[in-house]
Amino acid sequence: MTTRPETPVSENPATPATPSAADAADSAAAPADSAVTPADDGQHGPFRALPPWLARSLAANETWTAGVLFLLVAYFSIAAPGKFLTVYDITQIATNAAIYLVLGVGMTFVVIVAGIDLSVGSVLVLSAVLAGEYTLHHGGAASGWGTIAVSTLIALGTGLAWGALQGVLVAAAKVPPLIVTLGGFGAALGLAQIITGGQDPADTASGTLQRDIGFGKLFGQVPWLVVIAVGTAVVFGLVLAHTRFGRYTYAIGSNPEAARRSGIAVGRHLVKVYALIGLLAGLGAMMWLAYFGTTSIAGHSTDNLKVITAVVLGGASLFGGRGSVLGTVIGVFIPAVLTTGLIVIGVQQYWQDVAIGVVLVLAVYVDQIRRNGRDPG
Description:
Helices cover 67% and strands 1% of the residues. It has 377 residues and is mostly helical. It has one domain: ABC transporter involved in vitamin B12 uptake, BtuC (Orthogonal Bundle), CATH 1.10.3470. The chain has a two-stranded antiparallel ribbon. Helix 4 packs parallel to helix 9, helix 6 runs antiparallel to helix 7 and helix 6 runs antiparallel to helix 12. It is a multi-pass membrane protein. Pfam families: BPD_transp_2 (PF02653). Keywords: Cell inner membrane, Cell membrane, Membrane, Transmembrane, Transmembrane helix, Transport.
């Protein structure tokens, strides 16, 4: 039995592989120009009597997710007046969420193509270990910006290479992404433990990096980690919503065979998507080193679950073809606000994970009801 080879797509938009391939691909992925798909346009549901722009906004996943976040903030503000949402709380919530937001941006692309990446926390650890080992042998805590620049390239390159390798296994070897990334989870963590002997070595983070980036603030107000996270979200949010790369991502997640027939090199694109999340895991590794000053080898076993939770809370579909970076941004802050609020009102720590799990299940359930209401078939 033979399989139809993928049709290559020229990198130059002016010279598509066939006269109509690029145009057909753009047409197949047209819904990606908005976080709201045609089924969500609001004109076929309870908002059909409203003006089109308002109906579209109210039907968007991001609007509903933002509503959940607003309700949480309102509840904790009433339950603990003057104690919740102080300037300190806001700063801490944003700083703690920054690394998960960077990872979540990459996971958004992966989930939209109907993939999954369980290795993201281990890739972060491996990237941090290799970058930290370079720093350790080139000045340690006393190293300057030259060492920081090289260690950053090492972290980014490690994540990029690992992600691309997993992408090749998914796209070319046809191994299910769940299996590939589950294996990658163990392999990356194992390599990190082999390199370090299972211990977090000292002096793996530059004091300059920690002082200027980890604890530094733009204009003395906004933590640099938050600036980096927001910048990453903005850049890749625009890429997802307004570029051909983003349209291809949605098209593949919606219908990979239709995308292939329209001229999209599906396999090549999948490799790029998995390479992207690896690259952002490398960036997350440097942010972690900057803030915590250590590789924290044993501290990232649940990063994948936290990031996937944020992406799903943000409205992305695990079946592919649906999601947005804006939704992920909101989704990242729901668990962060929930955890902080429960601490403020004195709820026992063990109940926090229970509450986050309940919110996740309810969010998905409500979204399913909403979708079924719009499309009974």
